[in-house]
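To the team - adenosine-5'-diphosphate complex, inputs and output below.
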Amino acid sequence: MKILLASAEATPFAKVGGLGDAVSLIAQSVAKLGHEARVILPLYASINRANLVPYDQPMIVNMGYGIEFCCLWKTVNFGVEFLFVEFEKYFGRKGIYGENGEGYGDNWERFSFFSRAVIDACDFTDWIPRIIHAHDWHSGLLPVMLREQRVYRLSETASVFTIHNLAHQGYSPPGILNFVGLPQKLLHPFAMEAMGAINIMKGALSYANKITTVSQSYANEIKTPAHGCGLDDLLTYRAADLIGICNAVDGDIWSPEKDPLIPAKFTHENLKGKTKCKVALQEKVGLNVDVDVLLIGVISRLVEQKGLDIVCDILPEMMDNLHIQFVLLGSGDPALEAKFRFHERNYSGRVSVKIGYDNVLSHLIEAGADCFLMPSRYEPCGMNQMYSMLYGTLPVVHATGGLRDSVENYDAQSRSGSGFVFYRLNHKSLYDSVGWACATYYDHRQDFVAMQKYAMQKDFSMEKMANAYLEVYEYSLDSHGKRT
Ligand code: ADP
Ligand code: GLC
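Output:
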């Protein structure tokens, strides 16, 4: 089956968060099962063109106001062909979504242009997919275009739309319809209108043949007002077409046995290398070298979703009362960055804060820390808690979305589990859970080590995920057949 995945991010070319990891992994995993998968994304200025090949001819993009010319580039990575849409005006910038913590004001224009370019690229490359699989609002116009623009060669193509984060919906001015050549009737509450604007996510959820999201719990949560971000009614209406599929982990990249980015390898049978990684991490980030202290890691975008403001509030209390070290790698909200830095100055040698994006350090934190903190307010899936478990770094998480589904809470009776889970997100629960992890680490070390070994053997393999998506692709073809 030919499947075209369209996304604003795809590793190793463009990654801001887990979206990039998830999309490339879906493509790679279905390709491994013998299907033809391609990924298409914008050619951002940050992407190294050295290994990409441009098509000879420029490609016409049929916009509502006339035609534009862009260039298409391609390359092959892990058996998957990647296509890149080059258009200087929109993608020749420093950032992917914005710069200095501010989103670009014309993101709706940039990504609606990209969506139309995806449609035109099918004809241009003479590669007609059976499925167009769109991800998040940036490519959310694709299911709408497939139905409303009636592109001749794509009449048999079905659409699947995956929600990685429902909070970002792509609110756009009504002029977007003329801009990309979609009919005015879509400016209607039963189609794409919301508060006088066009809501791209709403359009995707209304028009896609099937909808998926990245964990079963998040699929349930988004049908409720608390997590539905205003679209819970629509998602409830489409409940029969909404499927939760947990992301997988790329075992070639995230494995303590093979990882070239860490100073010592280790397995669940021999954890010695993990201690070496802990020392290397402490040295690297300026923490006191001490193999006995419980070292807690965080790697995250510093945004409201991640709940790290709560950690920041209680960090002094934790540092004063618990025997722990804390290392954070991340960037985002400047005020939160500054507060974490303030704590770093007050707890020098015990708190380390690295602001920025650093892939190599992220691997060292996963390998060297003992626990990994993820107090997310909501978490559609979350990749880091899975990476952590595979590196024997026990996650301390809020029971939400994919965190709830992937981390098994420590059970003191049976002395088992793969992490520490708290059910209410507030300062006290968070503090108590870290305290509980501490108590287990210091007073029940055997349990802690048994949990590490168990967590390292968890199965987040790609094959299970690939089979689930293939089933959804089949369902969407069936439902498309019924609709046309
Ligand atoms: P989200 O996509 O919501 O940010 P996920 O847990 O799904 O959350 O994925 C985050 C991904 O981004 C992980 O692969 C994580 O390691 C990576 N990441 C986040 N912040 C940084 C950073 N500052 N440096 C390196 N990697 C980061
Ligand atoms: C989003 C979500 C995150 C998820 C990722 C990949 O960024 O916030 O929970 O893991 O997408 O699906």
